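ok so dumb question maybe but i'm new to this and my supervisor (M.) told me to 'just get the structure for Hydrogenase maturation factor HypA' and walked off. so i did the thing. is this what she meant?? sequence i used:
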Amino acid sequence: MHELSITQSVVDEVLSRAGSRRVHAVRLQVGALTAVVPASLEFCFDLVAAGTVVEGARLEIDVTPARAACRACGVSFDLPDPVLLCACGSADVSVLAGRELKIVSMEVG
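this is what came out, is it supposed to look like this??
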C-alpha cells in the first residue's frame, strides 16, 4: 500500500509548515491517474497523524478527473479509465489533467 508512504510525506510536509500550531484541516488534490485510493489515504491519515499537531484534522480530498488531448485529431476528452486512447483510435495523446498529487491548503489555528 503506497498510500501509507504518500500520507507520511503529506503529514511530514504539513508538520514542517505548521510548526507548533494545531492543524484543523488538510486539503489534497489527487488526480484520477495517480493510482492513489482516496479511502486508503483517509485511513492512513489518522494513523500517521496520531501524536502530532495534525491529529484530529480533517482530510479533504479533491479528485481531479483525467483529461487528455489527441495529437492526431486535436480533440480534448475525458479519460474514463487509465487507457490513453482517443475515440478516433489514436494513442498519440497528451495528458492534460489527472496526474496531480499535491497539498492544496491547510487550516491551522
